[in-house]
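Quick one, T. Sequence first:
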Amino acid sequence: MPLRPSPLLSLRLPKPTLLFRPFSSTPSRAQAKMSIVGRLAAEPEVIPTASGTDLVKYAIGTQHGPRDNRQTTWWKVAAFPSENQKEALTSLGKGSLLYVEGSCEMRKFQDREGTDRSTLSITQ
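C-alpha cells:
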C-alpha cells in the first residue's frame, strides 16, 4: 500500500500579518541605548531652551585598558531633567561618579582643517 501525504500537511495556513508598532503612535526608528558609568568632567551646564524647559549638558570620562596604559574616553550627555533631577545634577562636582543611561546618536562632521570626524552623543 503506497503512502499518501497527510491532508494536514497539504493544508496551507495564511501567513501571519505583522502589526506595525501597535503600542506606539510614533514612527518606527532604529534606536540605540547606552549605559555608562564614569566620572563627571566638569560641573554641568544648564541651558534654557525657547520652549521654557532647561537642557543640562555635561561630559563623562570613562577609562579602559591595562593599569599601566589607561585611556580615557569622553562622552557628551544632554538631559532634559525634571526640577528635582536638575538640582541633583547641578549639585554634583567635577569627578563625581555617575551612572548614565540614554539613547545615543552618532554624528559626522568636518573640523576646521577639513578632517572628517564623528561624535557620539547621549540624550537622557
